[in-house]
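Ligand-bound model needed. S-adenosyl-L-homocysteine.
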Amino acid sequence: MSSPPATPQLFPLFADLKGRRVLVVGAGSIARRKIDALLGAGARVAVGSPALEPSVAALVDAGRIEHYPGRFDPNWLNDAWLVVAATDSPITNRAVATAAEARRVWANVVDDAELSSVQVPSRVERGPLQIAISSGGGAPMLARHLREQLETQLDESLGDLTELLRTQRRRIRQRLPDIAARRAFFERLLAGPVPGLLRRGNHAEAERAFEKTLSEGAGTTAGRVALVGAGPGDPGLLTLRGLRVLNEADVILHDRLVSTEVLALARRDAELIEVGKQVGGDHHATQSRIHALLVEHARAGKRVVRLKGGDPFVFGRGGEELETLHAHGIDFEVVPGITAAVACAAYAGVPLTHREHAQSVRFVTALGRDGSDPIDWPALARERQTLAFYMGVSGLDRLRDNLVAHGRDPATPFALVENGTRAEQRVVTGTLAELPEAAAAHAIRAPALLILGEVAGSAATLHWFGPRPLRLEDAPATGTSIAQAA
Ligand code: SAH
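Prediction:
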């Protein structure tokens, strides 16, 4: 047994102030905020103060609150359940606290834990759902920090979920009088489609799904899959929604391209399965294995996250995976990610469009991997557009030759971004004419993204992340092997 703490802990309570009288002493901007919160909780508010801030005076004029003019008088506390002292006079605040103590009225003195018999916690609110955080007045900054973290993690739709459960509470108890069965039902309900439907604002559908789950009682859980874009590597570029589903996942199927920093954000006990495609491996076999794993884990009732580098719908085969899920009747959602072209451009200081030089951007890939040539070279060679090539490290000489042969200016600038947004990011810049040589001279490897177009020239001046961009002439003159990665 551990010994009791030196100072006893505060006892948390949620007070029902509806129709109850609360006195606020002071009428400045802090008092105003307290008055608003108290009115929001349905309290009958009286404010005691010699002078009133205009917005507080307006409330008095509108008959929404009462006013006791003049200096603090302990008789103001008659009939009060609670008093909030929010004056800028420590003497008055103390007088309020002392008078309240003598009359057994709970008192909160703003920013003074010692004088307060009750403290107002930091709060996270989602509709009727409230999370209150207190450090006992000892570390309010820490409480605030935690509050901010919770704000990012808890979806807004939790309020709707709370409301739905509140209205259905009696029916749930009638249907499942046994507590263990009820617990199993809630697990199933929360892991099932209802929270996701509420998040999408689909209330009618959510109610139907709720009814279905309730009719099944304690039965078995239906799994679901979230197809999530992990972004290019920097974990700060994951979306808030992506972070939330990662936090809830039981199983995470991820590509090799997903950074370890992003994976570190997953729930500790989540099962991580790497399903990355090996270079030169059998892509078809890999993809069927992914489909099989997705279906297997979802059928087992798991919350599955399929985590892909960048955005799942940009050269990510996300569409094929969703078709498989759809065919098997498995519920899914898609969380977009920041795609490599957008991220690498930003982190290399290259605006993808420009009012004068580039009116369009193309995302291009699969440069004739099997010898066939599906590329529309004349279209790509057109001026005044930016090209972003994915998987653009091998075959750079062929790329250059074709673009130049079809009329693109050999002096067109490029920026080749290796490991974009990661700590190891490198950027090579130059002109189309020298592209393959520059990439080889600096031994650029996958993952790398090639940006070609007039806009790429700005990397020289607008770069802000990682080391300065490299040029062909920066490479050691001899002894560099021509290294090319897939
Ligand atoms: N779905 C991903 C793209 C997958 S294709 C997305 O939206 O970004 C894989 C290619 O993306 C790589 O060969 C490379 O060209 C590019 N890529 C992905 N992450 C990258 C990064 N951090 N830096 C540079 N290129 C990247």
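The CA atoms of residues 50 and 69 lie 5 Å apart.
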